[in-house]
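@channel sequence for tomorrow's demo:
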Amino acid sequence: MSTLLHDVATHTAFALALSPQTLTDDATGSAVELPDGDGPAFAVVQIGGLAGGTTVSVEFEQSSNGSSWSAVPTDIPAQTAGGVTAVTFTRDARYLRCQVALTGGSPSADVAVLVGQQKKVV
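C-alpha cells (generated this afternoon):
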C-alpha cells in the first residue's frame, strides 16, 4: 500500500463526520464508515465564527458494531482561533464518529469535520 496520493479526488474515500453548523454546545457527529478505505485515516477540522473565549476540542471514537464506542488516539490541539487543522490517525474498527466539545462563558463556533482515507488498491 502506498501513502502517496497523486489524485486525491479519485483515490480518496471521504465522509462528512460533522456537517458545517454553528454550535453553542457539545456535539456528536453521525457514525460514518469508509468501507473502501485502507491505511491511516485523516481528519480535516474547519473552525470559523468563533466567539471570544471559546475553545473547541475535537476527538474521535470508533466502533465495530455502531453501539459500543472507544476513543481513537489522535493529537488534535484544542482550537481557540478559526482555521483549518488536519491530522492523521489509525483506526481499527468499522465505524467512526467525532465528538466536539466547546468551553467558554458563552461558547459558539462554526464547525465542520471531514474524514478520509486512501481507497483500497487492488
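heads up for whoever presents: The mean pLDDT is 91.
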